[in-house]
Each structure stands twice: as C-alpha cells, then as structure tokens.
Amino acid sequence: MAGRILIVDDLSLNRTVLRGKLMSACYHAITASGGRAALELARNEKPDLVLLDYHMPDMDGLAVCQALRADPVTRDIPVILFSATADHAHRLGALAAGADDFLAKPLDEAYLLGRIRSLLRSVAHRDEWRRHPNTALQAGLADPAGLFAPQPHLALLTGQPNTFAVWRSTVSAIWPEARLTAATVPDALRLDAQSQVPDLFILSPDALEHAGLHVIAELRSRAATRHAEICLILPPSDRANGAMALDLGAADVLTLPLDRAETRLRLEKVIAHKQLADAQRRTLERQLGLAAFDPLTGLHNRNHALMQLDRAITPDSDSFALLLIDLDHFKEINDRHGHNAGDDILQQVARRMQQDLRKSDILCRYGGEEFLLAMPNTDLATAREVAERLRARIGDAPFQLRNSDLRLRVTASIGVSVHRAPEHPLAGEMLNQLLEGSDRALLRAKHSGRNKVVTARATAVA
C-alpha cells in the first residue's frame, strides 16, 4: 500500500496543492483543516507521516505535535512541521516539540519528497519489527526515545586534514560530551573494525567537494559502516544536493550557518534512532543465539549442530568422525546433590572439552548429559586419540562445585564411528547410520564398565 500522509493546514489552497504533489508521487493523502481534526484523524487512520502547518487558528502546530507525541497510538508517526516564518524560535520550537523536521515555506518540492522518502523508509523498517511474531524482537520499541542517554562517537569527514580543527571547534561547541574523531573520506571507507566505526559520520562541505555525494552510498554499502548514521553540512542554497543525499541514505541535512541548539536537537534525534536500531539488532542476535545455542553450557544445541554438520560435509571429505560422549552415573549426581550441582558439572565438562578442539570441529550438547563431537577430515586413529584425551580430561581431575567445598569425580563413556567411503557422500541416511554407529558403540562402552572409548564395529559406511 502506498504511504498514507496526513496534510494539516487551515488554508484549503495549501492543502489542495500539497495533496496534488503527493498524489503525483503516488502517495495516498488525507487532509485536515485544523489541529483538533488532525489529532482525531491521526488516531483513527494512523497515517505513515504527518505534514503539519505551524500556524492554525484552533490549535497551533506545536500543540498538535506535542499531543501526537504524548499519545502512545500516534507518538511514533513522523511529523514534518512547516511555516512561512523560519526564524530561530520557530525552527527550535518545532524540533523541541518532537517534529522530525522543520521546513520553511514556500516548500522546496524535491527536498520535501526526499525527506518524506527518508522518513518513510525508517517507518517501514520499524514496522517490520513491530509485525514480527517474536515479541522479544519488539522490546526495544516499547521505550520512549527520551530514555536514551547518548554519549556518541561522532566522526568528522573532511576533504583535507588541515580543515579538521575548524570543524572540531564547531561541533565540540554543539555537543561537548560527544567523542569526536577526524578522518578523510578515504580513511572512512577503509574502516573494517567495528570498534573504530562511529555512531555518526558528519560530512563537511569540503569533504563533499572532494568526494561527491556518492560517498554516502559507499559508506552505506560497506559491511563495517553500513549501520552508522550519516549527516552532511550544506549551504542553504544547495537543497538539490540535500534531497539527493537523503535518497542515498543520509539521516539529516544540517544547514549553514549551524545553529547550536537546533543542530544539537537534530543530532540527538539521529543518535536516538541509531541507538534504537542497534538495540533491535542486538535483540535479534540474542534471539538467534537462543535458537542456536544451549543456554546452560553455551555449546551449540542439537538441531543447530546437525545443520552445521550438513554444511561441514563436502564432496572432497575423505573421512568424518562422530564421537558421542555420555557422562557416567549422572542421574546419581542430580539425585544426591541436586540439579544445580548437575548443571554446574555440565558447564565445567563443556569447558574442559572445548580446550581440545580444532576450529573446524563441531561440539554440541546432544541431550541431557550427552554431547556430540563431529570432526571433519579425521581418520579412525585420530578420532580414538581425541576420544581418549577427552575421556581423560573429564575423568582425571575432580570437579569443584560452586559455593561448596564438595569435589566430585565424573567419568565419561565415548562411542566413536568414522565414515571412510568418499565415493559415497555422507548425507541423509548415511549420516543417520553413522550416528547410530556411535550410539551403539557408546552402549557397548556403558555395558563393559563405563569410562571407556569404544569404536563402532563398522567404521566405514559404504
């Protein structure tokens, strides 16, 4: 569905002209002739964006914007305030009231549409999270932006290193608490460590003169910098480049001469948006982690390990070993010392086993007190050697329980099977046969006295 935009203006001609421009750009426009009507429409229609006149007889634009922000139903709808009066008080009042931007009449059509597109992209991204069936992924959207306390890292991009001092002085006065660094455009494009990437790049006019607007697209396309926000500083006459910059992915355009209070409000809005997006990504990563890892031991869980195993098997794999590791008499530990003690043992066993693995090995908690170790490109002799080393690492030293003087000795039985038939790809039913071979070998280790390594009788699946 095309973006729905609410136009609020007490003059019928202004509403008609704006509506025509938006419809020409394939937006769906709805209109209100005053502030109170606008609030009712916003609540009922939930538009994607509001274009709001500053001066109206029944309720001025500031009051409407504040009411929108105070209502949980409408507080996240982007608002662009506009007025024929564009002095400091009007601009600052609009941003302080919660508007996403303030534009002066007569409206520059290209810049207005660029700003609308930029804000609607943010709305679309936010709504993807809101519609997600996993409510944990929506958690970051529940808190008002005001709860963020930003101390951001800002990087000033200049055309020449010798111009940095001037811009540093300007930006330091605007946001003294911020961490400021300087870079030329080539320096920024060479960043590859996430820890070096700022929250926000601020492109100075001389940086744009040397590199052009395409630097915005370049920063957006690089893996290291694609999540950093971008603002640029332009003279007021350069609205065409401002519109293009917004379409390329800039978050805002700062107009010369920089007003300290207005610029600070604009930068705070950009940083608040960045922090919210970062929080959403972190939540997603945590949720993906929960889906892939066992929360107790930190190892891969069974399902994820088997998927990894599928990817690890390649046509040129000449051998592949599976070790099934089971802790002996583990039920007695839980029954005698409690499940907290059992959990402690499982965590320590996982840490001990991880010390002996290669990067290509796949270790997971297979279930209960069972672990599975998959070892690509491993022959039978090596697999047995590793299994004996793991058995010794688990059983030779007792485990010290947390918050207790108790030390428990735990042993492990291990079943080993190896695929050694490269002419038959290890997949599907053959992988199941290999797992069953390890399981049968493990049972034999249990039945023959435990604390042993036993190899599957058929070590080659053909």
Topology, element by element:
Blueprint: E1 4-8, H1 12-24, E2 28-32, H2 35-45, E3 49-53, H3 61-70, E4 79-83, H4 88-96, E5 101-104, H5 109-130, E6 153-158, H6 164-174, E7 179-184, H7 185-189, E8 200-203, H8 205-211, H9 214-221, E9 229-234, H10 239-248, E10 252-255, H11 260-292, E11 300-301, H12 302-312, E12 320-327, H13 330-337, H14 339-354, E13 362-367, E14 370-376, H15 380-395, E15 399-400, E16 407-408, E17 412-419, H16 429-447, E18 453-455
Parallel strand pairs: 1-2, 1-3, 3-4, 4-5, 6-7, 6-8, 8-9, 9-10, 11-13, 17-18
Antiparallel strand pairs: 12-14, 12-17, 13-14, 15-16
InterPro entries: CheY-like_superfamily, Diguanylate_Cyclase, GGDEF_dom, Nucleotide_cyclase, Rev_trsase/Diguanyl_cyclase, Sig_transdc_resp-reg_receiver
GO biological process, one term: phosphorelay signal transduction system
Keywords: Phosphoprotein
Can you describe what's shown?
Helix 2 packs parallel to helix 3, helix 4 packs parallel to helix 11 and helix 5 runs parallel beside helix 10. 45% of the residues lie in helices and 19% in strands. Strand 6, helix 6 and strand 7 form a beta-alpha-beta unit. The protein folds into 3 domains: 107 residues, Response regulator (Rossmann fold), CATH 3.40.50; 146 residues, Rossmann fold (3-Layer(aba) Sandwich), CATH 3.40.50.2300; 156 residues, Alpha-Beta Plaits (2-Layer Sandwich), CATH 3.30.70.270. It has 462 residues and is α/β, with parallel strands linked by helices. This is diguanylate cyclase. It holds the Pfam family Response_reg. It catalyses: 2 GTP = 3',3'-c-di-GMP + 2 diphosphate.
